[in-house]
Design a protein that fits this description.
With 93 residues, this protein is α+β, with helices and mostly antiparallel strands. It has one domain. 16% of the residues lie in helices and 28% in strands. Strands 2-1-4-3 form a four-stranded antiparallel sheet. The chain is globular. The chain starts with 10 loop residues before the first strand and ends with a strand.
């Protein structure tokens, strides 16, 4: 079945910027994923559940009370044994 996701708000791209150890699902620096309130695709479900509200904030035009760039946030995977760092970037549509 082919699924179509409606465009809502801004696009959010998650880019892996660092991996402390071997990621359990194989994510590597440079990998990119489009995330939204509707989809997480091949992105790690554990990590996505930890950042889903921040993805929604970026997608729907919200801002953060911290950080220098309102369109970029950096988050670490909740798996302390295989820490992956991801940059969330809002692409304003």
């Amino acid at each position: 079945m082919s699924v179509t996701f409606p465009p809502i708000g801004n696009k959010v791209i998650a880019r892996v910027i660092a991996v402390n150890s071997a990621c359990t699902i194989g994510m590597k620096p440079g990998d990119e994923f489009e995330l939204s309130t509707h989809k997480c695709g091949d992105f790690c479900g554990l990590f996505y559940s930890n950042i889903a509200r921040w993805v929604t904030t970026l997608q729907l035009g919200g801002t953060f009370p911290f950080g220098d760039d309102p369109d970029v946030q950096v988050w670490d995977c909740p798996n302390a044994q295989n820490r992956v760092r991801v940059e969330l970037r809002r692409i304003r549509e």
